Amino acid sequence: MLNGTELKLFADAHVLDEMTDKQVRILLAAIEVFAEKGYANASTKEIANKADVAEGNIFSKYKNKRGLLNAIINPVIHSIFPAVLSDFNDASPIQSNYVTLHSFVDTVLRDRVQFLKENSAVLKIFVSELLYNNDVRVKLMQQFPTSYWKNINHNLNVLKENHLMVDWENTEILKLMWSVVSGMIVGYLLFNQPLESKEINHCIDALVKALSR
């Protein structure tokens, strides 16, 4: 079953503002069915049954199953994901006079893991599309706010200047970080691998060891 946080995710992005109660039930039912069975194995009939509406109600609002999927994916790309990145930038500035590599990696990782766990059904659908749909990947990269890249590059440069991190190009450092974190995310969302404190701490320790001077 979905949790209240995942509905709040769409409410905060104003996706639900113009929706009727019936349309909200359809959207939530689609999230649940797509997350459980995958897009290819889901049917609009099953979604309609779970939402307790006639199947025609789906087609009148979303046209077809792909339209329903896009109603879930597009807000993540255009509203939710950029907002999360901006909130992260605003909430976690790096102070060069006391920062350690461990605190940087911990900050980058731990809050995002909490967001991942609170919104796992929506993100499972999104990650599945991200892996197999190049258009989704392109749209996602276009939505990274400029402030994110500016802030993350500043943080990496401070760590290198303070001799707390390997002196690699920032793109190399980010590639390593994203590969480790992405593996953890995919394992949790698509393969039901555990993601508790032990696993998070091991991931942080691995990144710190790999990136230390």
TrEMBL record:
The keyword Acetylation does not apply. Keywords: DNA-binding. Pfam families: TetR_N (PF00440). PROSITE patterns: HTH_TETR_2 (PS50977). Signal peptide: none annotated. Residues 20-80 form the HTH tetR-type domain. The lineage of its organism: Bacteria, Bacillati, Bacillota, Bacilli, Lactobacillales. This is TetR family transcriptional regulator. PANTHER family: ACREF/ENVCD OPERON REPRESSOR-RELATED, ACREF_ENVCD OPERON REPRESSOR-RELATED. Residues 43-62 bind DNA. Transmembrane segments: none annotated. It comes from Lentilactobacillus sunkii DSM 19904. The keyword Ribosomal protein does not apply. GO terms for molecular function: DNA binding.
